[in-house]
């Protein structure tokens, strides 16, 4: 696939990037370089290779997915300008 200057201008417009007519050939060349790199990556055989999330092999820490109240009600309500009976108190806005 090859990107011409018209396509580069359209991509620049969609990305809301201001590009002058003189810069379009260089932008199209950059797009073509990127596409060439992607095509080279498509030729790599990755059968049997597991996806990884990091370059260093480490397991992610996991915790049980349990719903809790956080046990921090007093700390949270300490920041409120007005708290009553364990809740934030706000002015009445509906009559």
UniProtKB/TrEMBL annotation:
This is Aspartyl/glutamyl-tRNA(Asn/Gln) amidotransferase subunit C. It comes from Tropicibacter naphthalenivorans. InterPro entries: Asp/Glu-ADT_sf_sub_c, GatC. PANTHER family: GLUTAMYL-TRNA(GLN) AMIDOTRANSFERASE SUBUNIT C, MITOCHONDRIAL. Its EC number is 6.3.5.-. The lineage of its organism: Bacteria, Pseudomonadati, Pseudomonadota, Alphaproteobacteria, Rhodobacterales. Allows the formation of correctly charged Asn-tRNA(Asn) or Gln-tRNA(Gln) through the transamidation of misacylated Asp-tRNA(Asn) or Glu-tRNA(Gln) in organisms which lack either or both of asparaginyl-tRNA or glutaminyl-tRNA synthetases. The reaction takes place in the presence of glutamine and ATP through an activated phospho-Asp-tRNA(Asn) or phospho-Glu-tRNA(Gln). Heterotrimer of A, B and C subunits. One of its GO terms (biological process) is glutaminyl-tRNAGln biosynthesis via transamidation. The gene is gatC.
């Amino acid at each position: 696939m090859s990107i011409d200057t018209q396509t580069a201008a359209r991509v620049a417009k969609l990305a809301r990037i201001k590009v002058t007519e003189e810069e379009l050939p260089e932008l199209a060349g950059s797009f073509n370089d990127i596409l060439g790199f992607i095509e080279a990556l498509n030729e790599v055989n990755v059968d049997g290779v597991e996806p990884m999330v990091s370059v260093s092999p480490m397991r992610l820490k996991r915790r049980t997915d349990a719903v809790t109240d956080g046990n921090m009600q007093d700390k949270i309500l300490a920041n409120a300008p007005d708290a009553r009976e364990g809740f934030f108190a706000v002015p009445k806005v509906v009559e």
